[in-house]
Amino acid sequence: MRKEDFRQWLDGKIKKKPISDCISRCTTVEYALKVDLDEEYRKDKMQKLIFQCRKSSISKRAVMLFSD
Q1: Which of 2, 41, 40, 44 has its CA nearest to residue 23?
Q2: What whole-number distance in Å separates Cα of residue 35 and Cα of residue 10?
Q3: What is the distance between the alpha carbons of residues 31 and 40, in angstroms, rounded to a whole number?
Q4: Distance between alpha carbon 51 and the CA centroid of its chain, in Å?
């Protein structure tokens, strides 16, 4: 992720503290999923990544419901 470009884009849209939080959370997502969010956005506006995350989240909830 191009952190400085993202920081500049967010500047004026939200306050300073939330900007740092957004960047930190995005960095965490990139590390955890081993992706580059800029590249994922360029490919398909993150549609595949969002679908995979939703599918994973639904799967985890289903497993929790039926695991007793």
Answers
A1: 2
A2: 21
A3: 14
A4: 12
Phi, psi of 12 (to 5 degrees): 95, -25
| Residue range 6-16, pLDDT digits in tens | 999 999 999 88
User: What is the Cα–Cα distance from 15 to 60, expressed in whole angstroms?
Assistant: 34
Q: Which residue type does 44 have?
A: D
DSSP string, 21-45: HHHHHHHHHHHHHT--HHHHHHHHT
Q: Could you give the 3-state DSSP secondary structure of residue 24? A: helix
Q: Is there a contact between 29 and 46 (Cβ–Cβ < 8 Å)?
A: no
pTM more than 0.85: no
Decide if 42 contacts 22 (C-beta within 8 A): no
Which residue from 35, 61, 60 is spatially nearest to 50, judged by alpha carbons?
35
